[in-house]
Amino acid sequence: MARTYGGIPPERRRADRRERLLGAALELFTDNGFRRTRITQLCSKAGVSTRNFYEEFDSLEDVLRTLHNRINSLALQHVSTALDEVAEAGAMTRIVRLLDAFVAAVTEDPRFPRLNYVEAIGVSPELEAQHQVWVDRWAAFIETEARRAAAAGAAPDRDYRLTAIAIVGAATGLLREWQAHEPPLPVEEVSAELRALLLAAVTHR
Known about the structure:
Elements: H1 10-31, H2 39-46, H3 50-56, H4 60-85, H5 91-106, H6 111-119, H7 125-151, H8 161-180, H9 187-203
């Protein structure tokens, strides 16, 4: 049986180590680049041993996949909550709220877009597959809201799948630009541009 140290149970200590590794990885991957980061660097920054690292992760790519999934999951929670708050609102209001909540979530930490849309791209087939899963999820969200708008008569009744994928691509491009731009672009400008693009795309006939 694992022993408790300083009143802290082993599962709590392990969870703390895991979070330190993830926090250090987010910093190193976005400052130095994923491909230039070494496990020894990460362990040193997190204050854990390499043995502890391999108790939590299989590789640095495993850490990157975990962070990529966590950032998208966080954004999904924000968007789901935001849509619940405007459950009775009009279709266009819901679309605007969806985009604003998404942009707010993924720019909450300026390192998030760097990790999601730069460092996590082109690393491996496994990570690309995970990226595609999230593209499909976000596109499905947008398509559902566009269909809601069509049902309410606020948009034409048509297939919105390609439109949704195009908007996800536009969001990715704008957020890549946002994280790279000096001086930083106002987040409000990114949100406004995406709102304009989506509303135009959904309502065109």
